[in-house]
Design goal:
- The protein is 45% helix and 17% strand.
- It has a 6-stranded parallel β-sheet, with helices on both faces.
- With 428 residues, the chain is α/β, with parallel strands linked by helices.
- It is built from 16 helices and 15 strands.
- Keywords: Amino-acid biosynthesis, Histidine biosynthesis, Metal-binding, NAD, Oxidoreductase, Zinc.
- Pathway: Amino-acid biosynthesis; L-histidine biosynthesis; L-histidine from 5-phospho-alpha-D-ribose 1-diphosphate: step 9/9.
- Its cofactor is Zn(2+).
Amino acid sequence: MKIVDLRGRYFKEDESLEFLIKRGDIETEKYEPIVKTIIKEVKERGDEALVEFTEKFDKVKLNPEDLVIPFEELEKAYNEIEDDVRWAYEVAFERIYEFHENQKEKSFFKEEEGMILGQKITPLEVVGLYVPGGKAAYPSSVIMNAAPARVAGVKEIVMCSPNPNKYTLAAAFVCGIDTVYRIGGAQAIAAMAYGTETVRKVDKIVGPGNIYVALAKKNLYGIVDIDMIAGPSEILVIADETANYKWVAADLLSQAEHDELAASILVTTSEDLAKKVKEYLYTELLKDFPRKEIAEKSLNVYGHAFIVDDLDTACEVSNYIAPEHLEIITKNPFDLLNKIYHAGAIFLGEYATEPLGDYILGPNHVLPTSRAARFSSPLGVYDFIKRSSVIYVSKEGFDRVAKHAINMAKSEGLEAHKLSVEIRKNNE
């Protein structure tokens, strides 16, 4: 972990910030040709291609009839997992569902003289969830993706996951997933986008994945809708001298264990805190840590502690990075809330540790990464609905606005637009 002293100088002048920001750049030239080939093969050969790619990439030999995981396996997994884990899944789904109910939108209609204008809210019909199965399995992602879709009223939810373990299957059972497919990678995204003999064609694909999944979603956007193109995970902690260095270190490690590209960033006004956090990470927490190899690589390359002059500067640094997860562990964390403009999720206070948000609190953990928090939001109910404008115009209403439409059409030189209004105005 690198300690960088920014006191007394403009933070953007330091190369470390640019290094962190660019770490998630997709190596398009390297991977895109492979992804495009996979998409083309799945589109043209369907299940046959899925079986081939599953054996090639996941080392699992399947027949087409094995692509669908029987519902009985989901129920069996639910009954087999530990009682306390099963209860945690149930509580998590309930809390996340209840939180997202606050995001529901309503249709509305507005009447004025001779017109009815409004907006109709319609849930998507079929949504596909992608759940990774590589270096770690994420049953929490099943719940986070499925709960807002259920709140929105999506009619059918299907899920793709390579070699899902019993916990992932149990989470799918809790969420009432309609169909689970035993496939992953770019081939799973292509299958859900185009449909195959076995895999259901969907309207939207949500959920994180590796670079192959991210590029497949990017290439298939337009054929199907997507939630976002997720990059490596990241956490930024703003802390002052009152923060507990052991707690801060543990929070940074919780991101580093995700993968080697994860970024764990501390921005603090206390040089003493920065040094203690680094020492505790390496001498205590990483010692005998189960995922030490991954976490240590992440911290060695992308772990940074920035020392700044004051908390206002800390907020500026955070806004520039626009982190996926932001923790504010200061004496008065609420004092900084209005100074934060770009963050996927904001955790306030020393007990609001990011893993609570990952699992149980209620707000969604599917968040914008790689600075996308500057313009996008966490996954929510709004991602699973469509808005249609509704327009009714009577003769009276038409007479009120027709001349303005004619004049605007004239200014744009669109004669047929003008004609379609004039032909009614002249009652031809």
